[in-house]
Amino acid sequence: MTPTRTVRLADLTDLTQAHETVGPRAREVHQRLRAEWGPVAPGELSPDVRCWFAMGYAEFSEVIRNEEVFSRNGDNWSAVQEGRIQPDMPIYPFVTTRQNSFHNDGELRQRLRSPIDRALSRVDEHGYAAQVRGICNDLVDDMLERGEADLVQDYAVLIPLLSVAAMFGMGPEVGDSMRKAAHKVLGGGQLAQEGVIELAVEIVDHIARRRRDPREDLTSHLIDDPGLWDDNEVMEAMIVMIIAGNELTIATITQTLLLMLSDDRFAGRLRGGRLDVDQAIEEVMWRDPPCYNITPRFALRDVELGGQLIRKGDAVVPCIAAANLDPLMTGDDPWLEIGNRAHMSWSAGPHSCPAQRPGTIIVQAAVRTVVERLPEVSLAVPADRVERHTDSLSYRYPTSMPVRFVRTLS
């Protein structure tokens, strides 16, 4: 079967106009692809680089959970083996092989992932939540003093890495420089290589300081873990946590705040107490997931998926937004998903987000601080003028959100 037109990965990231959530147009595109191909559709990652899109909830789950068939290691992609993936391609940073849990499978992935899980299990969540609330309150204090704000640039983009830096025992100045480097990595191409180098320099210096002066922080826990064999593996573990969590957390915060400020029904439920902050975040995860697509998996053998024959070496892109909108999961009313946490926005399986709990703490604190301290906040521009960041193959969120509020210090 020949598709009516080639679908690019960018098409699945930019299914809506810049100001829209995953709404009617997105559903229409998903429905068209499903009607033509079923839950798995062919497409392109970039010109002449073919892939498959896993859009059905069941097919998405199969791809991300079964690493014995669908590998995360880019060395298994036929396009890499044939030399067709170049460093200037946006996809390049996600398929290069590095010594970390993100880029590997099986026993090596487990050895490199387990120290991250163990270190995160030692985080005092109550104390960490207080730290994050302090960061959010400090940023709101600055906004109140100025009397104006951009909830993206002055708030949402600053919180995640300032919070992660605190968890690693780093100062706020390091957190800001890491934020800029992490953003470069996710942009792809040459900037991604620069971003990785910048991150590595900051992290190597911090690891050296912690070897001289151990503390009760995440860095020291990773250094002490026998599963990481040298400082390079410690550094790679930290890079995984920084890159994987930063954009996801920014996007979740901004998507929630934008929905709160632009959707009267959502805002009324949230401010009226019928929808608490946790439920609001879960609803965003369903309605407008912060991560539209996750990194490709590569077939280790010929396999049938969703009625399509996937050949050994083919790339399969798990599409979160499409899987969350699978009619088999959602029905016709997205508002009915309140309380349902079966969405795939944190991914699942062996490569699921390792920092879901800290990430949730950060998002909850960021949204709750705005709700509590800026009760009369409103957009300073029409909602359809809020542009979204679209230079990533996975993430799409507002680049700016100017707001008005009552200037009172608490």
Give an account of the 3D structure.
The protein is of the alpha+beta class. A hairpin with a 2-residue loop joins strand 6 and strand 7 (308-310). The protein is globular, with a radius of gyration of 21 Å. It has a single domain (9-404), classed as Cytochrome p450. Helix 6 crosses helix 13 (231-262), helix 7 (125-146) runs antiparallel to helix 9 (159-168) and helix 9 (159-168) packs antiparallel against helix 13 (231-262). A five-stranded mixed β-sheet has the order 1-2-8-5-3. The chain is built from 18 helices and twelve strands. The protein has helices at residues 9-13, 24-37, 57-65, 78-81, 92-95, 106-121, 125-146, 152-156, 159-168, 172-187, 189-212, 218-224, 231-262, 264-271, 277-287, 320-324, 327-330, 356-373; strands spanning 40-46, 49-54, 70-71, 149-150, 297-299, 303-305, 308-310, 315-318, 378-379, 388-389, 397-398, 402-404. Helices cover 52% and strands 10% of the residues. The relative contact order is 0.18.
Key terms:
single chain, alpha+beta, Cytochrome p450, five-stranded mixed β-sheet, three-stranded antiparallel β-sheet, 18 helices
Summarize the entry for a quick read.
With 410 residues, the protein is of the alpha+beta class. It contains 18 helices and twelve strands. One of its GO terms (molecular function) is heme binding.
